[in-house]
Amino acid sequence: MLAVISAAVAPAIALLSFIYLKDKYETEPLSMVVRVYIFGVLLVFPVMVLQYGFQEELHVSGFVKAFFVSGLLEEFLKWFIVYYSAYMHAEFNEPYDGIVYASALSLGFASLENVFYLSTYGIDEAFWRALLPVSGHALFGVIMGYYLGRGKFASGRRQKYLLLASLLLPALLHGLYNYILIRAEENMYFAIIPFMMFLWWLGLRKVKLANERRVAYLSRHQ
Known about the structure:
Elements lengths: L1 H20 L8 H29 L3 H26 L9 H25 L4 H27 L3 H29 L3 H33 L2
Helix pairs in contact: 1-4, 1-5, 2-3, 2-4, 3-4, 3-5, 3-6, 4-5, 5-6, 5-7, 6-7
Keywords: Cell membrane, Hydrolase, Membrane, Protease, Transmembrane, Transmembrane helix
GO molecular function: peptidase activity
Function: Involved in the degradation of specific anti-sigma factors.
């Protein structure tokens, strides 16, 4: 069991460390990051209950399952917790902070989800789990956090649009990810790997842009 937990959690910790250390100017308090990560771990349980209820009671289609029961539901609950546990906190004081906290929560969620999966299907699945769903959760978190970071320092209608984007864009990408897996079947890896390459390009671009926005933000407030 220890090997399963290690194999399940290690990719998430590695990705979170990478994102945390990409903060080039002022890293966030580690206690806050760990707290948000733990919230992500705990979020797995209500999500499992809700998803089981929707799928068993409503007999949803693959499209609805991908985009609503999984994509929108999971990303909304992540967004809700990040908003109230980090976004409203005084430590959220620079544009890059959104990426740190949203990815921390997403990777906490991915960690426990991965433990359950590997416990059921075996440690041989660890490589593909790290490459696909764990990385996917991290990148959905990066995109959510990028727009949260922008929204934090905007105002009026622009702030509302950015906060809406911080929810809807990761939900849409998460839904597309799930729908590709549902539809691809035998050619799953050939279908999903190009999508993951796009996600990595987009996520790393958002990391770069967030750091650039931080420089601009700091120069205006010195």
